[in-house]
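Please, structure for the following, as tokens.
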Amino acid sequence: MKIFLISLCTIAILAVVYIFIGENILTVEEYQFKSDKITNPVRIVAISDLHDREFGDDNKDLVNKIKEQDPDIITILGDMNLESNSNDTVVISLLIRLVNIAPVYYCLGNHEMAVFDSTSIVSDIESTGAILLDDEIVKTTICGNDFSIGGISLFYFWDGKAGATGSVLSRDSTDKNFKLLLCHYPEYYMWWLKKENIDLILSGHAHGGLVRLPFVGGLYAPEQRWFPKYSKGYYDDENLSTMLVTTGLWRSSWLPRVNNPPEIMVVNITRE
């Protein structure tokens, strides 16, 4: 019995150490995407779901890791704050440093939307120089390539405006630009975006399914519930819109991330 208890305690301690280390090591996940709309290579960094976490003092480790990727643009996919905290200092401090690395495009997640009316988070984001896409589309040039970048903020079943943003980006036949959509919720893809004609959608929200099981994938995600289909990586269900989902940087509850380290997603877009 004594040996059994010692073994059990040892396993428990090792599990705690494994989870702690795994939750504190920043990783970089790279994806390749090809398009005939691209002439010159474009490198995009995407981050999501920071939930007020700090990696190093004032997030210096996160900033340095992003800078090392040498991005052409940085996309932020929402839930960088915690809805339970009305102070957005962590988010704004990070943005101030990121805009000095590359242009930053930001779409809102459910945690930002939860404090949308009660705090100054929107104006604070905009004051940093980041481009906030609150159900909006902007046209820009990146490395000599023409881009149309959209951002969806609201739940589709809350407000038809969110649906309109994706549809306008998809169905504007006069727009020959590369169409990039920032959308916090991968569920949008499941519900309707996979049938639209958008070149690339970047999403977060699912936290990688929180626990990553070998040969299975994520264990649980908001909205999708158990064994979520859309929790990490590349999806191309209808051969129209393609989605990449990042596992994000942190979590919004006390439940730990297991086998699921904090992630910076990098997307290399090159000519097909």
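The two ends are 63 Å apart (CA to CA). The chain is about 25% helix and 25% strand.
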